[in-house]
Amino acid sequence: MGKVSDLYEQGVAEGRIRADQAQRDVLPHLDRVLDDMAAAPAPERRSAWRAFLGVGNPAPAGPEVRGLYLWGGVGRGKSMLMDLMAEAATVPVRRVHFHEFMQEIQAGLNRARQRGDQDTVRPVALEVAAQVRLLCFDEMQITDIADAMIVGRLFQVLLEQGVVIVTTSNRVPEDLYKHGLNRALFLPFIDLIRQRLEIVCLDSPVDHRQGRATGGQVWFCPADAQARTAMDTIWADLTAGAQAGPQRIEVGGRSFDLPLFADGVGRAGFWDLCGRPLGPADYLALSRTVRVLMIDGVPRLSASNYNEAKRFVTLIDALYEAKVRLIASAADQPEQLYNEGEGSFEFERTASRLREMQQAGWGRKT
């Protein structure tokens, strides 16, 4: 196994990483996971069918390798450290946003139900375990009851199969799915995290997403006539006279329309994307369709439009992970859009991401 700390110091020396003592303090914990994996024999791997039928030794060989739960405020470098972790690993590894991973799991559960499987979670977890030994999740957050009700069983099977889990989050484990429906059924998962993952806080006072050089203006507020004119000018420039029209986006046997699309650039009003019952799968499909997305009229968010605000958070997560360039007009600056009420804590991460997405050079390389 490589060393996360070596890759980190190399990045600092090359000027790609801004040195941060709080980040350096957690590097030994990341190195420890890889060292333990290198010292432990690889677990016995069975085919999904043999595992499902109970044929062979169900327990992984060798000592248990304890994973890692790295939490801290937004913009502290957790995602960057997760990238380094995946790069340093020499075992089969997957680095994936937690939201995207759970979408894949839910799709697998649907297939298992269609097969008539009584235990739908186990075969899906076994498929994952057959492909990776180290799972690196970025941004664990659980707001969907469908995810909350199966994630404990999913992790239990993965850990039984010897998969090592490393994850980042903005919250301590006890705050996951806070105030969620039927949360009592979720609490054993928190106990499982505490038992099987080392809990480490990245306690840096610096938000590394702030203070970066910005490129041309891509966030216009307030969303008035002047902002509309600026957005229209950018649209005309990006599409260069190409014929624009609605773009149908197919998602699992259904579809929704993006109001305007031309030459890889999409444009929609806030309510077109967040006022309709769209979900993570829809936004992931959208992020694969466009390289630039323009959103008009993002309002102030609060308890009065909580569902729309929640969809906006999910949309930004999908765009961020896919490196889609965002241009928007809004009622205020990102940090001032959602200042109080349920959901305001989660929006701190969204505001930080919106700031990062404004920096020069950010976005998908095409």
TrEMBL record:
GO molecular-function term, one example from the UniProt record: ATP hydrolysis activity
InterPro entries per UniProt: ATPase_AFG1-like, P-loop_NTPase
Keywords (A to Z) from UniProt: ATP-binding, Cell cycle, Cell division, Nucleotide-binding
Domain of life: Bacteria
Record has ATP-binding as a keyword: yes
Gene Ontology biological-process entries: cell division
Protein name, as recorded: Cell division protein ZapE
GO cellular component terms, semicolon-separated: cytoplasm
UniProt keyword Glycoprotein, yes or no: no
Species, as recorded: Paracoccus subflavus
